[in-house]
């Protein structure tokens, strides 16, 4: 079993990342919707939606939203948000998408680069392209590895949700790896996250290979200019002809 097939379904994962900034996520969606000119009623998809925080806000803005994720636990939590206009299902993004005909397809918060085979990465981008209407948009938000790599390795210890987490983030070949040790009472469990190192050019090339036209690249959640050395994010906006 691959790390992403087990870790995302654990209570430990949700406890470790319970502090995520929902206000920042909502402001990011507001900025993108405004930039793309999406109107209420637009059909949008959130690929690897997690617990649905981005998808739920898009629904609040009047979008017709489909969110999917491989994690059954995350999808169950997303459904508990009970947002009109948002539908959540379990699905593997490497497989043909469950619906087509979207005005915009989002892939956010580095929910990508998990796979051993680079062909799977391209398959996902092609799936997003195929899910779009002609003239529709693909929006991909990925970590900018350049500033991250200068800080590695880095270790941290935190307590959240009654668990003690010891983490170590480091580079292994072309991946950023996070080793996670969880102390739950007397029990100790080990998990790992890893994402492929993609530069802006790498992601642009994937989008072009999938048949998309890259129209903008931003460097943060305020849609600021991209700076390879300093920007925290790579926010890529592509269009289907």
Task: Give a structural overview.
- This protein is α/β, with parallel strands linked by helices and 241 residues long.
- It has 2 domains: 3-144 and 199-240, Rossmann fold, CATH 3.40.50; 147-194, S-adenosyl-L-methionine-dependent methyltransferases, CATH 2.20.130.
- The chain is 29% helix and 36% strand.
- The protein contains 8 helices and 11 strands.
- It has helices spanning 3-6, 11-16, 22-36, 53-60, 72-79, 118-131, 145-149, 200-209, and strands spanning 43-47, 64-69, 86-90, 102-107, 132-143, 154-160, 163-172, 175-184, 187-196, 212-218, 233-240.
- The chain has a 7-stranded mixed β-sheet with strand order 3-2-1-4-5-11-10, with helices on both faces. Strands 6-7-8-9 form a 4-stranded antiparallel β-sheet.
- The termini are far apart.
- The model has no long low-confidence stretch (mean pLDDT 95).
Q: Give the overall silhouette.
A: globular
How many DSSP E strands? 11
Overall SS class: alpha/beta
Widest β-sheet, arrangement of strands: 3-2-1-4-5-11-10
Q: Major β-sheet, in short?
A: 7 strands, mixed
Distance between the termini: 38 Å
- Which regions have little confidence, pLDDT < 50, spanning 5+ residues? none
Q: Give the rounded overall mean pLDDT.
A: 95
Strand content: 35-45%
CATH fold type of the largest domain: Rossmann fold
The total number of structural domains is 2
What is the subunit organization of this protein?
single chain
CATH homologous superfamily descriptor of the largest domain: Vaccinia Virus protein VP39
How large is the count of helical segments?
Answer: 8
Helix content: 25-40%
Order of helices and strands: HHHEHEHEEHEHEEEEHEE
CATH architecture group name of the largest domain? 3-Layer(aba) Sandwich
Radius of gyration: 18 Å
Q: Would you state the CATH class of the largest domain?
A: Alpha Beta
């Amino acid at each position: 079993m691959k790390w992403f097939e087990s870790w995302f379904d654990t209570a430990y994962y949700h406890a470790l990342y319970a502090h995520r900034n929902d206000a920042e996520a909502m402001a990011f969606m507001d900025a993108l919707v405004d930039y793309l000119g999406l109107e209420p009623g637009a059909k949008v998809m959130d690929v690897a939606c997690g617990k649905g925080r981005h998808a739920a806000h898009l629904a609040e803005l009047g979008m017709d939203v489909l969110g999917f994720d491989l994690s059954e636990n995350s999808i169950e939590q997303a459904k508990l948000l009970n947002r009109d206009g948002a539908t959540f299902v379990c699905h593997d993004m490497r497989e043909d998408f469950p619906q087509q005909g979207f005005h915009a397809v989002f892939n956010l918060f580095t929910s990508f680069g998990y796979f051993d085979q680079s062909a799977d990465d391209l398959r996902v981008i092609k799936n997003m392209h195929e899910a779009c209407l002609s003239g529709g948009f693909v929006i991909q938000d990925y970590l900018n590895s350049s500033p991250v790599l200068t800080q590695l390795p880095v270790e941290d210890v935190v307590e959240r949700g009654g668990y003690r987490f010891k983490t170590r983030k480091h580079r292994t070949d072309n991946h950023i790896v996070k080793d996670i040790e969880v102390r739950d009472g007397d029990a100790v469990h080990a998990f790992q996250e890893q994402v492929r190192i993609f530069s802006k050019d790498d992601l642009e090339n994937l989008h072009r290979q999938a048949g998309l036209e890259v129209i903008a690249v931003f460097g943060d959640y305020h849609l600021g200019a991209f700076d390879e050395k300093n920007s925290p994010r790579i926010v890529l906006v592509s269009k289907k002809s």
